Amino acid sequence: MLGILVSGRGSNLEAVLGAGIGVALVISNRPAVRALEVASEHGVPWMVMRRAGSGGAVARDTAIGEALTDAGVELAVLAGYDQMLGPAYFEAFRGRTLNIHPSLLPAHGGPGMMGLAVHRAVLAAGDAESGATIHEVTAELDGGPILAQSRVPVLAGDDVDTLAARVLIEEHRLLVATLQRLLASGGERAPAGDPC
Ligand code: GAR
Fold first, then answer.
1. CB of 9 sitting under 6 A from ligand 1
2. 9 CA to middle of ligand 1, Å?
3. In terms of residue numbers, what domain contains 70?
4. Which of 69, 107, 115, 176 would staple 19 via disulfide (CB 3.0–4.6 Å)?
5. Domain-embedded: residue 79
């Protein structure tokens, strides 16, 4: 069973649901975001878990992990989730957690590297290419083992919006293909001995 954590637009969630991949639960740290409308339109149960509403980041991370566990989730995906998950999450959820990031990690990851800020950094660095990365989530932000990457060129005249749009198409394709592969092979379960 798959669970998806979101914070905003929800286009990656939409791509997953549009591909017919079943999602048991969607969790957002923000209320009234488009991702929750996407979940509703597809009849997927969703919850909002805000830091203030659940007693701080540690309590929220615990609540998120417990909700995924209670929903029978074995594989969780951060699809535009804009918070870091702390040790309490990994205590409460013993499945596997993946993240999708809009650059070719390890380039342009880490603190502050979220959404358009990532594309801005790619353009500022003058990189010839960018892309999407799917990786395991560990205690190190954007630092877990990489499962899949897809590359796109950075074109002359690109701005953050044109680059973001080109990368987003690849994100959707890569996320759907990776999840289909993992779910078909039983790879949604954490490798033996892996505490995450
Ligand atoms: C996506 O581009 C995703 O890769 C990025 O946020 C966007 C969410 O879009 N995630 C990060 O930057 C994580 N560091 P979406 O809500 O439409 O899926």
1. yes
2. 8
3. 1-94
4. 176
5. yes
